[in-house]
Write a structure and sequence with these properties.
mainly beta, six-stranded mixed beta sheet, four-stranded antiparallel beta sheet, globular
Amino acid sequence: VQLQASGGGLVQAGGSLRLSCKVRGVNFSIYNMAWYRQAPGEERIFVAAISSGGGTDYADSVKGRFTISRDNARRTLVLQMDSLKPEDTGVYYCNKNLPSSPFSWGKGTLVTVSS
């Protein structure tokens, strides 16, 4: 399995970024998927999830600001991030929404939000 995240960068607080994750090697459409974030010196945490049927869930800290979506035909997971805050800074990863049994982690994409 290959998880290739992209779209990160440096943005000012209040700005927006759109992350994408291309998933190769599995039948993407059957998996519940999620985005995770790892800030410097901290553990990886849950950000948002989307089920195979399209139902969504968000960490309280991003509700109303982030939107997760998926394009099964393109095997791509998307995270639209608006009203970004400095505390959103970190490396963002996509994976199954099953932390106990994830796919092999990709490199992630770095998001830096300046104040």
